[in-house]
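Forwarding these from the shared drive since the link keeps breaking.
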Amino acid sequence: MAGRGGQADRRGEIRVADPAVAAQGLDDAAVDLVHARLAGSSNWPQKLARPSLKLNLLRQFARSFDDPSCSLSASHPSAVPGAAMSMIDRDLRPDPGPAGTASALLTIDLAAIAENYRLLAARAGTATCAAVVKADAYGLGADRVAPVLAAAGCRHFFVAQVGEGVALRSILGPGAAIAVLNGAAPGSEAACADHDLVPVLNDRSQRDGWQGLARRRARRLPAILQVDTGMARFGFAPDEVGALLDRPDALAGLDLRLVMSHLACAGEPDSPVNAAQLSVFQAVRQRLPAVPASLAASSGIFLDPGFHFDMVRPGAALYGIAPQEGAENPMRPVIGLRARVMQTRSVPAGTPVGYGHAATVARDSRLATVAIGYADGFFRSTAGGAAWFGGARLPVVGRVSMDSLVLDVTDVAPGTLGPGALVDIVGPERDVDAVAAAAGTIGYEVLTSLGHRFHRVYLGA
C-alpha cells in the first residue's frame, strides 16, 4: 500500500493520489482496515478501485468498524446505517463510464438547489430555514448537496435515520445542527450523542431512552419533541403531551430545542385539515411557549405565514418538486435525465411490442429501444408515458422492461435519431412531477428511485 497521498500499490486495491489525504487524517492503517474488513465479506467488492472514493466517508467507515456505538459489522454489511451504506455503496459501485459511453446521463444542478433554498428562506420570512437531506438528499447525493446548502447559509439539517446523521456529520463536520426525524432506535442513542445529533422524540420510549443516556453521561442532551396533530404517523398525541408536561420531571436532563409537527395536506391549500392541525399545534405550543416551534415543510411554506412559526423544514421543494398541487411551480428544476437509443427498427402495422404483447402498433412504425428501465427508476407503471427528442414527443410503446423501453419515433424525421442518440426522459418538456404523474406516483418517489447506472454530472459545483 502506498503512503499517504501516494499511488496504489501493485494490487491496485485503492488509489489515493490526492495530497489532501494527510489533511483528512486518512492513514495507511485506516485504508488497510477497510480493505481487510471488506475483503472478508462476500457481499462487498474485493477491491476498492475508485479514485473518487470520498475520503471522509472512507475514514468514517474505517473508524466505525471498531466503534460499537455505530452498530456496524464487517461480517454483516446490511447492519451499516442506511445513508452511510448508500453513500459509501454508491462510490464502490462500478463506474458507469464517461458520458460518451454511459447508457444514460443524469445531470444535477447544484446551483439550482442553492437558489431554491434561498427562495424558500425568503418566503419563510423571519423563520429559520432548515433543509431536509434524508434518503441521500432525495437520491441526489447528500455528499454533494449538503455542502452546497451549507454554503447557501443553511445551518440546520434533518435526516430520517441515525445512520444518515452519522454520515452527514462526516460530510459537514462540526457546527451544523443535524436532527433525526425518526428518532433514535433502541440501542442507537450512544451513536446519536457521539456524533452530536439531535433526535426527534416521538413517543415515551424514545424519551426514556434519551433521558437514560443523559443520566448515564451526567449531562443534558438536546432533543426535539414531535406532536401528532392529525397524521397518525410520528409523534406524541396531544393528550399524551399534556399528561407528559404535567410531570415536573418529564423533560429532566433534556435540552428541548424545538417542538414540531407535520402537515398531512399542505400541498392542498384549501384543505380544512391544514387549519385543524394548526389549531391543535397552537394549543400544544401554549404549554411550551419558550420553545421554538416548527410546523411547515416544503408545501407548508406556501400556506399562510401563520404556519411558519420559528423554523421551516423544506425537502422536496429544494430539489425542484412543485410544492402546491395545481399551481405553477416556483422552484427551479434540478435534474435532467437523458437515455441513449440502442437500436431502431421499422415494423408493419399490427406488430406486437414487448412483454405480454401488451401493445400493438396501429400503423407502420419506426421504434427505438432505449437503455433505461425500471431498474433505473423508470417505473413499469409508466407505460403510456413518453420521452422527448428535438421537441417531438416519443410515446412509450408496451411495457417498460428492467433495462430498456421502446419508443415510437415514427414522427421524427428519418436519419435524425439512431443508435447513440440521447432522448430526454426528464427535461424542459417533461419535469419530474410530469414523469411521476405518468407513473401514477409523486415526484418524491421518482427522485429517490433514481438508479446507480447513470453517469452523474453535477452542475454549478
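-- next protein --
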Amino acid sequence: MRVSVKVTEIMVYITPIAELCTMKDIATKEDVVLFVNAFYDKVRQDDLLAPIFDSKIPAERWPAHLERMYLFWGGILFGNSEYVGNPFAHHRPLPVGEAHFERWVILFRGTIDELFRGEKAELAKHRAASIAAIFLNKIMFERGLRQ
C-alpha cells in the first residue's frame, strides 16, 4: 500500500524539531531582556496573575519594574550584583497563595522552554521554582497557615 503525504504537511512536523535543535542557551543581557519581557507579557494577560500585578504596578511603572527584573535575573544567572533590593518584601503583602505561585512557575518555565535550551535555561527554571517555593512558604508561615 502506498501512502502519499503533502510536503507542506511534513514541514509542519519537522519545523518544531529543527527549532529545538537550534535553540541556544541564555548567554547575554539581551537574552535576559527577551525572556523577562516574554514572561511578563504572559503574566499581564493571565486571568489569575494579571489582577495582582495590575493592582500594584500601574502601567507607567512597568518599564521600571522590567528594568529591575532584568537586573534581578541577570544577577541570578550571571552572578553580577547589579540588583539591589529585597524582593520578598514586595511579595509579602500581596493577596496570593499556592495557586498564584504555581501559575507563576508554569508561565516562567513555559517561557524559558519556548526560547532557550541549555544549562542557564535549566538554572533559571530551577531558581524560579525555588524562589516561588520559598516565598510561598514564608508567606503561609507569616499568615499562620504553615508551621
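Residues 119-142 form the longest helix (24 residues). The chain has a mean pLDDT of 88.

- D.
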